Amino acid sequence: MIVWKDAKDKNVATKVFFGNTTDDKLYADAEFEVQAKEADVTDAFLKGALLVQVGTAICVATKVSGNEVTVDGAIYAAEAEA
Hints:
Layout lengths: L14 E6 L4 E3 L10 H9 L3 E5 L2 E4 L2 E3 L2 E4 L2 E4 L5
Parallel strand pairs: 1-3
Antiparallel strand pairs: 1-2, 3-4, 5-6, 6-7
């Protein structure tokens, strides 16, 4: 598999998503208002640019399967593709 950098990736080192331990969902913002999209999470993971902040800890995701992201043994759900 070849993963190409796109024009939208210019000058992007990492993408930080936010894991909410209350509802086990993954969010695009620290306020837990906008749930992360599966496509965005998968894209960042494939490019080695996915970090997840849980509380004060910033972690590297170890697995992405569908809309589920594994971080430190916990699974967080991104918004599934339709």
